[in-house]
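Incident log, support desk, overnight shift.

02:14 A customer reports that sequence design results differ from what the structure should imply. Their input is reproduced verbatim below. On-call engineer (initials T.W.) acknowledged and began investigating.
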């Protein structure tokens, strides 16, 4: 029914145990389409509604009764509401985030795990950038098979959580995706596990997305399909799916495939630009679109073949363009997708030769769900403001122009905005440029005073610092409370392997006071000193303490949030400073003063 061959030499290959992967070249599964065609009733097949199980006769599955299925349905193919018209295209989105675990990987995992089960594997192992891990762990759970997952450190937490929830055994590897993939292969060979991942069998499941598109378009071929490239397996699967449908007589013309990579992870695009058939691996792959952060695409040469053989193209996009496209998709099309998926839309927006495609049917494959990595949105966003449950507070925000501007900044966060104290006019200009926002003067003054404090610490103001300061200003209660409590100075000593000591000088009303505290570290010591200082006035309890470093670098601005509780009433305070102790003190002041409002 099928053969496994080397993709380059086209010669049959022999697997090593349950490892279906070549040393240097990728392998490929060659379906015997003549036999399949003879068995299929094509007229009946054409009119059967699409879903994964419909395509079982076209997949390398021997025992249909053992197929591991979660009763997948066809993912929606929806027409663009606004973007298509603006680009002059008949644009559709294939919403692959609607698969069982939130990405297209499920199509391949159904095959991977079914083959592993047919072959009697005792366990499966794989490397992943996150989505494949979540997907394989889910299907392995359905097959009641242990699943070992190797991921590079720093995989988005939602994907880790999925693996853990499905009972997968997850291990983080210090290195890139490719380092994890090498290790998975070695262990599979040594332990006799089935090696799941971007290898020949997976393509056979993922090609069903191409079948589905043709079925959904009632057997009209689209002109172009835009697909993000990580390992290159998925674009390969689309090319193979369309080609098989053509050979079966279900498709007349092959759609062009456009592959999209992130600028700093563009190994395939680099080769395409030089019209090469080989891949030069990159040292690293640095992009916010973690699902396509692959320095050495395992199926890179197959991806190139998919592009060349369909007269397609390959395009790279920057992180900024990806974020903008992601925002556009959610705002205008009501589709919240992963950065890697939004890259397809970013590519269309920046491709000038689209004129040749005027009014043609183009499909962007939206590979994964936005909830998979919400941190990239939160990092670009101004966090929501906080108010007391009071109508007046809402109205103040409402009338302050706060909701008029944007709430996300897409520019390079490390760019320096101010080297020295900015004037109110300069702050106004930047707010307008970055957020289209026109805040009231008292906000501008607050932002200015926060920026001054950061500059006083000897730090330049970057875009990310500016963002934090805006947020901080928005989160401090709008009307300065009659500040009964303030800290006017502090000092701390911290030594290695010893407890820390802190002294704080505070003012409560008109009374000045000095208090001391010890703690396991400088922050703890300062908080203890502060509690000491207030204790006589009021009894309260520190219930929550959160720290967030939102951008990179040891001089990054730190964002501290803490909650004080007194007689069942809690008050939240937040502080922002490049100095974690100062940020904690500011948070404490705000929270404490919250009680007296
Ligand atoms: C895996 C993945 C990709 C990349 O697909 P490849 O088959 O590795 O090229 C793109 N987007 C998402 C959301 C993914 O999970």
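02:41 Re-run completed on a clean worker. Output:
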């Amino acid at each position: 029914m099928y053969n496994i061959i080397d993709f380059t030499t086209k010669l049959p290959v022999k697997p090593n145990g349950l490892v279906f992967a070549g040393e240097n070249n990728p392998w490929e599964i060659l379906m015997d389409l003549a036999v399949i065609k003879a068995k299929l009733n094509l007229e009946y097949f054409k009119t059967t509604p699409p879903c994964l199980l419909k395509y079982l006769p076209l997949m390398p599955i021997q025992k249909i009764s053992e197929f591991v299925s979660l009763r997948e349905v066809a993912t929606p193919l929806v027409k663009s509401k606004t973007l298509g018209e603006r680009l002059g295209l008949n644009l559709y989105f294939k919403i692959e985030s609607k698969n069982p675990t939130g990405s297209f990987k499920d199509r391949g995992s159904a095959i991977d795990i079914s083959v592993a089960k047919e072959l009697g594997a005792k366990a499966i192992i794989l490397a992943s950038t996150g989505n494949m891990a979540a997907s394989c762990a889910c299907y392995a759970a359905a097959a009641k098979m242990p699943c070992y997952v190797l991921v590079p450190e720093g995989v988005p937490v939602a994907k880790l959580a999925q693996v853990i929830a499905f009972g997968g055994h997850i291990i983080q590897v210090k290195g890139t995706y490719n380092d994890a993939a090498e290790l998975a292969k070695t262990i599979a060979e040594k332990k006799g596990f089935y090696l799941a991942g971007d290898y020949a069998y997976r393509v056979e499941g993922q090609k069903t997305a191409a079948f589905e598109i043709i079925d959904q378009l009632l057997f009209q071929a689209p002109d172009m399909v835009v697909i993000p490239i990580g390992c290159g397996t998925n674009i390969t699967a689309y090319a193979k799916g369309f080609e098989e449908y053509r050979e079966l007589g279900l498709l007349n013309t092959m759609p062009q495939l456009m592959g999209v990579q992130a600028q700093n992870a563009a190994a395939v695009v680099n080769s395409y630009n030089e019209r090469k058939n080989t891949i030069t691996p990159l040292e690293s792959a640095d992009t916010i679109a973690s699902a396509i952060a692959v320095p050495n695409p395992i199926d890179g040469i197959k991806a190139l073949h998919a592009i060349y053989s369909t007269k397609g193209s390959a395009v790279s996009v920057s992180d900024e363009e990806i974020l903008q496209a992601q925002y556009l998709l959610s705002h205008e099309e009501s589709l919240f997708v992963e950065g890697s998926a939004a890259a397809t839309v970013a590519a269309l927006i920046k491709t000038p030769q689209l004129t040749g495609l005027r009014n043609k049917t183009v499909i962007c494959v939206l590979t994964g769900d936005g909830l998979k990595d919400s941190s990239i949105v939160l990092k670009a966003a101004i966090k929501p403001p906080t108010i007391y449950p009071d109508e007046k507070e809402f109205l103040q925000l409402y009338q302050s122009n706060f909701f008029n501007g944007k709430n996300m900044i897409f520019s390079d966060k490390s760019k320096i905005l101010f080297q020295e104290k900015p004037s109110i006019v300069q702050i106004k200009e930047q707010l307008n440029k970055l957020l289209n926002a026109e805040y009231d003067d008292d906000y501008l003054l607050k932002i200015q005073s926060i920026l001054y404090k950061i500059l006083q610490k000897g730090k330049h103001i970057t875009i990310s610092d500016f963002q934090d300061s805006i947020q901080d200003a928005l989160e401090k209660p709008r009307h300065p409370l009659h500040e009964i409590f303030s800290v006017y100075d502090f000092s701390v000593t911290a030594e290695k392997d010893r407890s820390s000591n802190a002294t704080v000088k505070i003012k409560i009303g008109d009374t000045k006071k000095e208090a001391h505290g010890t703690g396991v570290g400088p922050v703890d010591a300062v908080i203890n000193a502060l509690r000491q200082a207030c204790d006589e006035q009021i009894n309260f309890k520190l219930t929550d303490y959160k720290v967030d470093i939102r951008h990179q670098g040891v001089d990054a601005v730190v964002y501290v949030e803490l909650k004080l509780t007194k007689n069942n009433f809690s008050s939240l305070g937040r502080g922002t400073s490049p100095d974690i102790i100062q940020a904690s003190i500011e948070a404490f002041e705000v929270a404490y003063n919250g009680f007296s409002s």
